[in-house]
Amino acid sequence: MKMTTALIKSLSILTKPIREAQLSAGNGTQTALVSALQRNLSELQEHMSGSEELEEARKLLEEVRRDITWVCSDTDDLTWSFVQECLLLLLCLARHLNHLLKAFHQNPTAPNPATPEAAPPLPPDVLSVAQQKTLGIVLQFVVTLGLCPYLAPGVGVALGLRSAFGAAVEGAIRHDVAPAGERRLLITTNVLLEVSALSSLATPVFTRHLGDIMAALCQLGYRPKRPEEDSTNSNKGLTVEERKSCKEALHNLLGKVYQPIVIKELLVLQGGPKQASSGSRGAGKALTQAPAWLRRLCGQLLSDRLMQPQGVQAVVRAILEGTGAGGDSDWRKCDAVAKILAACPQQSLSAESYYSQVCPQVLELLHFKDKLTAQQFQRVATRAALIMVQDRPEFAQRFLLFPLLSPLHHSAEGAGDDLSRDGVQEWELTRCIEDVYKICVVGNSPSEVLLKALADVLSTLFSLFCFTKQNVSHLRTSCQEILIWFLSHSEQSVALSQLKHLCGLLGEVSGVRHGFQFSPGSEGGARLTVREPISDDDDALYEKVSGEQWRVQCLVQLLGEMKDSDLPGEFFLLLLQDLTAVAAEREEVEQEVDTSSMTLLELEQHLLGRVSGHGQRLALLQVLAIMCDGLPYTQLLRKPTQVLGFIVSMLQRACVSLERGTDSPVESQTLSMGMGLVATLLSGAAELTADDYSSMGELLPHLEQISQQHPEPVIQELASDLRATIATHGAYRPKTVPKTATQHSTAQSPAQPAGHSSHSLPACTQSSRVPSRQQERSQPISQPKHTTDSGATPKVNEIQNARGIRSSDISKPSSSKAFSECLLEACDPDVPTRAVALRLLTRSVSDGDKEALQNKDKLLTLFLENLEHEDSFVYLSAIQGLAVLADTFPEQILQRLLGEYQTGATVGSPKRERSLETRLKVGEVLMRASRAMGPVCQIWAVPYPQHKCVVIHCVSRSFSLGLRHVVLARLLNAKRPSSEKAQQLLQSAGTAQ
């Protein structure tokens, strides 16, 4: 260790700083630098020759001086003499530490058994903090005086642009004396590389001076030889062997240093045409443009780094490390890196080999877990993938999209027989879905190639989505967003075709190959496993049918999420057109086929074709029914053109019926609804423009056919009038049009704004129950007291004449029959029918109908039972009915309601407990009743003060503070004071308030 200390001491003498007195004596910086170097060299000679303790160091220095051949003792350049002494001492230090390290490894020190917890001894090449500081100063002097001044213009960063001291250094160096500048550069670079062979010395060399060493090696190994260099005696250049050794040293250096740092230094060396300079004194100057040979070399080296394993990650880290997250500059950097990765470099042998190596690495960038790193890497990977798909689709399809979607391809039908019995693992499917989500949904840059690749696995993706809807899975949202993204960005014809394919209208499809199924994964995902065979044919058929129905339900739910898209409505109209075609073919008489001349195979194909046709018709009806039940009409018909298409489909079916000469209530009511909607549109329900009238021109052929072929003169006249109104753009409007619109206003047409309640049931309620259910649900449920559907009557009162048009001929049954029909319909399992019946009974009570008042007990029981119904349309109608009964018969009804609410047990036999939810609904009735009674509550409170106390007690115990305030304000509005118990309850309720 004495030798190490002596050598470090000698290095510190060489780098002793300049005294302030020398700078203040009036000398310039350049003169002061030269005098300081001269003085330090003299002090070093005195130090090495005077002390006997440095004898070993002197011997080592002389030995090193004899071994090397590049020492120039007769140079006239003081700076190079200084650099030579520094290089000699560095070589001595490196060789001495290397010798100590070998001895340390050959004879390791045995651990002390007395103190086993003691740390192991440090290797002898470990330097102290002060020694490392001295070494760093020496390396800085060596690079500044012996390396940077000899770099060609444009190679690396010039000293004058680094600091003010760099300009003084450039002036102090003499280039006209031996040795030559390129020879000096070679000597300094070789010594630094030899010193860096020791790990303890490599760290300070490469952490601060890697870029300068790389610049020197590039110049020494690759700079083209100029003719004028050979003509001078002072600059003889380098030999071929020396240039070759510099090239090898450069490639070895690039291979062993941390790759992001190497790439960053290469980017600096490559430079640019216009780069702003840094530094205080050089402000306003531009960096010298790198020469062409250096730019080409750096491009080749960068390409080599990029195509190595983990090369893409190294490039991204080199540019983005330390930039943080967020900000416009960060986004620009990510976009720039993505463009670099997506563009095949000119130095690459072939584009195919480049993309085959880079694309898998781009996908790997999507899998980082660190939040900051993952965010930046995902930006780069997503953008790079999208640029590749856009610019180089032939390579992106093979090397990017197919590996990306391979788990879905392996899960699909027809993927081959080589699929292992283990199927597809959970982590593969999870990674696939997450990567597709990042590229497609987050990247959000649709292209034809990307959409086509996704369309190939859409059925499998949809099957996975249907599976996640049956289980708790973190893949559900990602699958849903990917499907919505695809349907939203595909062409409408492609999206509609895919929708028909997914719901089985174009043939049977499961999305998963035969014999396999998706199963829950251990981490909340899904995996593809072998399906257990089902031996029972009935069970297999049930599973198949239920699976198909579940797929349709999932598809409708998916369409329900596309609230701002026209696709659900267009798909609905497409299905209606198919339904019209089915209706046209349904009644056609099948031609007699002579089966006696058929072979068994032909007969089987004939029968299978007939069965398949019936199956497709049933599938179409199923999809339409689920869509009408699961989607509101405001989403199915959200544009005027879609409403018009809906009307056209209805009139087309009516024309098909006329052509066949058949008649049925369903077809009559379809024609009634269609013509009623047209009349409503033309009567001013919505303001129509010239474009709207032009679009309604599609109705003219169908109206003309109806006016000529329909057997009823009234229908013929109405069709002709509607046709004339449309053809004249409303200039000619016969009286039959507004009259029919008024009659049809019982239904809430699609042209009305959402939320407007209808005043009576549509004429087609009985035969088209599913669409009417959507209309009923769109009406407001809770209404003010004594306000119900004014024109609503039981179904028996809705039966119109044969064509459902002339309401003047409707014959109303007796009041007794109407009341009994309402009682029966109040128990109907159909939700809209039951709810409307309850509201009609409520109106009968509020209007003072004699029969309804006489059967108040039946109505009370009926309303109480419907409170337990799960549909809000039903139980809110029952709540309204109970409130009206309590307002009409407060003595009997309120007492019964109070008992139901307070005890929770039913009155009468058999007794059973009411659920908490039902008791809360009774509380809602009590609140409405108290609000509706108003001042009447004062009169009723006099003979029944105990009931009033019970109401107060119930309210104070169970209602929310807001509801307590309302009920107490109503019930305590009496002029006479209540009982003492009531006053106590009031006080407790006020405390709670």
From TrEMBL:
Which keywords belong to this entry? Coiled coil
Any Pfam family matching the protein: ARM_TANGO6
Q: Which PANTHER family match?
A: TRANSPORT AND GOLGI ORGANIZATION PROTEIN 6 FAMILY MEMBER (PTHR20959), TRANSPORT AND GOLGI ORGANIZATION PROTEIN 6 HOMOLOG (PTHR20959:SF1)
Domain RNA polymerase II assembly factor Rtp1 C-terminal per the UniProt entry, residue ranges: 819-935
Q: Where is the composition biased (Polar residues)?
A: 739-791
| Family affiliation | Belongs to the Tango6 family.
Protein name, per record: Transport and Golgi organization protein 6 homolog isoform X3
